[in-house]
Specification:
This is SSU ribosomal protein S20p. The protein is mostly helical. The protein is about 90% helix and about 0% strand.
């Protein structure tokens, strides 16, 4: 009864916390890479 509920509520929290920063970090890295590439192209065009 209560033990099952506690176990169900506890494990998904760390899993979700671990799963969230990983995709966010990947998305941020990809976005930053695209921004950096765009900035480089802009700098080349400016030069």
């Amino acid at each position: 009864g209560p033990f099952i509920v506690r176990q169900e509520t506890r494990p998904p929290e760390p899993e979700a916390a671990r799963a969230q920063p990983r995709p966010q970090g990947n998305d941020q890295g990809r976005r930053q890479g695209l921004r950096r590439r765009r900035d480089r192209r802009r700098l080349r065009q400016g030069l």
